[in-house]
Design brief:
The protein has helices at 3-8, 24-47, 100-113, 164-169, and strands at residues 51-54, 74-78, 81-91, 97-99, 117-123, 128-134, 139-143, 149-153, 159-160. By secondary structure, it is of the alpha+beta class.
């Protein structure tokens, strides 16, 4: 069977027609900031008696991502019991937002697992962090220059990063 014959029988592969907006370097820099935020967040939770367990998949080295539901970074355990899902984000500036696809995926995972979902964002510009429980009542959406729609949180509705352990203790 020749390559051309494969197309005749309905090869599910199709040519991707897009030009990436972000360079690979810029893309990986964003991950590095989130890695640093996750390290700080995991350490904070461990010091307060929680066990953060990896949940979401690290897809940074995949050449092409399949469409699917984003997962939060961690399941949080207290006394070996799952109590919440947390996603750590690191930002270079005071941007209190996440990708809309991630927001919707996190809500779905929380619903499926019957666990509350938190997003914690650390800003390396102001050296401060905030967290929020999903779903949120007040947010806006905007289209970024990389053509991703993001959910922008109202900073006034977010709580200080270091308050997350106390919040998790109420669960």
């Amino acid at each position: 069977m020749s390559h051309g014959d494969l197309w005749e029988v309905g090869n599910p592969l199709k040519e991707l027609d897009f030009n990436p907006i972000k360079s690979k370097r810029k893309f990986l820099e964003n991950y590095e900031l989130s890695d640093r935020a996750a390290q700080m967040g995991d350490e904070m939770l461990r010091k307060n008696g929680f066990t953060p367990v990896p949940f979401g998949e690290d897809r940074r080295n995949e050449r092409v991502w399949e469409v699917g539901k984003d997962k939060p970074d961690r399941k949080i355990l207290r006394d070996s019991r799952e109590i919440a899902l947390v996603d750590w984000k690191g930002k270079s500036k005071d941007y209190w937002m996440i990708n809309e696809r991630a927001y919707n995926g996190y809500l779905e995972w929380g619903s499926n697992l019957k666990l509350p979902v938190y997003v914690a964002i650390w800003s390396f510009q102001s050296n401060q962090g905030k967290f929020i429980k999903l779903p949120v009542g007040t947010f806006s959406k905007t289209l970024q220059r990389d053509l991703n729609t993001v959910v922008v949180f109202d900073p006034k509705s977010m709580k200080p990063w270091n308050g997350l352990p106390a919040e998790l203790n109420t669960l």
